[in-house]
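Our collaborator T.R. sent over the components below with a one-line note: 'Predict the complex.' Nothing else. No constraints on interfaces, no templates requested, no preferences about which chain binds where. So this is a plain run: every listed entity goes in together, and whatever single assembly comes back becomes the starting point for the next discussion.
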Amino acid sequence: MDIKVRVWRQAGPSAAGKMVTYDVKGISPDASFLEMIDVLNETLILNGDDPIAFDHDCREGICGMCSMVINGVAHGPEKATTTCQLHMRKFKDGDVIDVEPWRAAAFPVIKDLVVDRTPLDKIIQAGGYITAPTGTAPDAHATPVPKKDADAAFEAATCIGCGACVAACPNGSSMLFTAAKIAHLGLMPQGQPERDSRVIDMLQAQDDAGFGGCTNAGECTTVCPKGIPMSLIGRLNSDYRKAISKR
Amino acid sequence: MTASDFWAEGEPVVDKAAPDGPVETRWERRKFSAKLVNPANRRKLTVIVVGTGLAGGSAAATLAEAGYKVKSYCYQDSPRRAHSIAAQGGINAAKNYRNDGDSVYRLFYDTVKGGDFRARESNVYRLAQVSVNIIDQCVAQGVPFAREYGGLLDNRSFGGTQVSRTFYARGQTGQQLLLGAYQALERQIGLGNVEMNTRHEMLELIIVDGKARGIVVRDMITGEITTEFADAVVLASGGYGNVFFLSTNAKGCNVTATWRAHRKGALFANPCYTQIHPTCIPESGSHQSKLTLMSESLRNDGRVWVPKDAKDCQKPAGEIAEEDRDYYLERIYPSFGNLVPRDIASRAAKNVCDEGRGVGPGGLGVYLDFADAIKRLGRKAVEAKYGNLFEMYERITGEDPYETPMRIYPAVHYTMGGLWVDYDLQSTIPGLFVIGEANFSDHGANRLGASALMQGLADGYFVLPNTISNYLAAGPFPAVSAGDAPVVEARKQVEDRIAKFLSIDGDRTVDSFHRELGQIMWEYCGMERSEEGLTKAIGLIRALKEEFWTRVKVPGKGEELNQNLEKAGRVADFIELGELMCIDALHRRESCGGHFRAESQTPDGEALRHDDEFSYAAAWEYFGADGKPVLHKEDLNFEYVHPSTRSYK
Amino acid sequence: MAVSGALLVLFLFAHAAGNLKIFVGLSDFDHYAEWLRGLGTPLLPHAWFLWIQRVGLLVAIGLHIWAATALTIRARKARPVKYAHRPKIQGSYAARTMRWGGVIIVLFVIYHILDLTTGHLNPEGGDSDPSARVVADFAPERWYVTLFYVVSVVAVGFHLRHGIWSAFRTLGQQTTKGERRAQAIALVLSVVLVAMYLSVPFAVLTGLVD
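Returned assembly:
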């Protein structure tokens, strides 16, 4: 199939960027979206142009590295699918496809489609863990965890930290990311001792990193490749209210 | 083939760190005899850890908890993205929670046997011992393992073992374990005990006075080259499956960290041992950039077949009559059928495709058919068991496996070889430790399912933090500065190489070379290797190397984010590694584990080991780009698990 | 936002209930207006209760707008560069229109006070009976006033549909069942409120109330 892509090109963090149109001819419908960009880049290199920089790694939908806003939707048109798992058969011959980076003040553009997502790590540093230094653990069966809680914790823990929620949020908020970690750890008995400080510290870190505030707009969950539900934000709010009232 | 053509033989290499005596107490005794570092002195000692997967992440966190100063490096934008995250199946541990006769000894036995008797008994026993601590540690960190209704941990049997010892978190065990290590690491970063450097790539090892004292890194955002110093360097940079270009590894996985160390004197052991996974989604065309693995469990209900007649291969599967189908695994291996081990299933698929009976694009695929299972169990039951896998298959191929049979093909999945390390996980360069998939230590010639996660975490959480203290007890070592001659030289090597890449300005892209290297490796050093093929491959690789250094085109500058420059360095190293892999495969004139030599098979086509000649680990020493690698053998002694032959007929 | 919003919703319902008095009779409606001013007497002087309530409302509105403004400013700062390609809606329409909806509602409230409370913009002037002002307002020849009123009330409806649900979430609602319940409550309350408010102008327009 023959398509056109309009891609955000930005030479460096402080350079001005613009959308540039490229023709991609004869691409297989079985190619993934990233493979389409690979093919385009091979042509660009041989023509002496600068290839498009983009983040990607595992290409099987789990590492969370790929990050493209395709036709205005983070990770593109297919539900619950990362960019790397999106295939060209989802588009039509002759389509013009817009590709932009995640846009958020907290995620400055490094080059073209590559952005800096380290603020998400900062949120985890602030409290997204259970303190359990190596060697201190009791036997794994010392504390049974109800299956219901373990399953719910797992669902929340499937977040891949890609940042699509931030990219989609009209407020540029990372609330769904933070809420997923709060829920994962808060649902486990091991996570109880730090539950109050965790939510307060992580929210503070989120604000400090320059993310916007949550208004429950719900666009995060519609683009989340792992389908993290918005109800976890309610859980975070509830945890926060309780934690604050105890202070 | 005589040794003198491609390699030379040197002195044997000996593991001096492992205690002898009863295997059960070796680890205890080693820990007791190891020197300790006073807690007050630990903060004066710096350790560099390269890589943040299960091994590197857990090691960095644990060393920081112990009080050492840690500097951590990864090429991704966050330590959470290391490729350990993609492991699906599970993690083994000899907990015996099922009371089904499992024990440390049995896990040890299974692993040595599974490794086709090419692993070191001491290391494997320790791995089995430590496995139980890993589960405790991970649960304490909040890893959401699958549980039963009673709230206790669930187990499953994996990879054909007779006991249920595999702990899992749905199909995303690697992700959940990595997040546990990542969170522990982030906590230490937040506390200021770990200096985290994301989007930084190690490009050279710095050796001062014979000791590993630092690394040269490139900041992948600015292109700045810096030299980083420490009292010890730990490489946890993963495996080298991407030498095949197409593999189930992440695109960024590379051999550069370990290869650079190899060039500086670290021995590289058993490079030819690669694990090929039989159930991956086949290539769909020349655009293919990686391969995706699907759980092996599919073979429990799916039937593997190809058309009997090559002429039928272009027809849709539904139009091929039952009597024209060749269920070749069931035919050749009547007792195990579709459930034969990974290497046998892979090789059989290659054989039928080589006969021209492969299906799908390029004829590189075989059918995995669920029609019978759907008839027998009903679509609902099949959906319940494999729904998510079918969905994944459909997302990638656009075909509905409920209607048309799946197409599968083997793909490179894991590399058992790596830098040679002793029992302390120290390489032949003092102060250079190697952990996880990057070392060669525990899996022998073949890795069992659910053992990769176990080894990564065993090394990072429990083994390295104990053994490294024995080395660090002699520190802090004299300060190193950027002006020291070996540092200046290492830095210059990196800068010159980058300048060289950028100056060639040829007419072929880096990827085109990588693809070509992959094709050579897959063809001649893949599922089946022969003397003729390997000799040919070595010639082809040498020619490719020549061409690479004269025709590669790397666009852009060094002082910016330049993904093609990154790739160029990795591919240049893969080309050199590829040659060594072929030499290693050529020298090992036996079939064992992931290494099948056409010349060494039983009359009915099964792998034939030669314990009398090859019961050793082959550790290779680098002797210049044009010099012959030198083979150092480490003899393997089996005091507990005695070599036997497997049979699946 | 949730707490100030909840107070305003309570007010909206009280106000709507009062409006419906007009169906009992125009003089009853006027009596109700007078009664409101007398509330709290003799403990409080005449109309003091009403003023206390008005001050309370102003504070709630002030907090609501302040919080909304702060969130909007943060949102702008959090995304300094806009997307070149942005599809209209990914979440819900009501959620996407909270900010512009809020501005429309503020403008409407100002007009509404000048019109029906002070009477400055009402054909009947400030000294007339409340019922007369209402009847004059929605007379068929002043269809544009009715239209503006309808648009504004519908805007309030949209605002509440997301706002009420969002308030539940902000206050910690987290279960799937609770979510469905909260969404249902938000929808029902918004629809009921819009119906209550629209019944009066339509009644005047169609001559049902005269």
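Summary for T.R.: Chains C and B do not touch (no CB pair under 8 Å).
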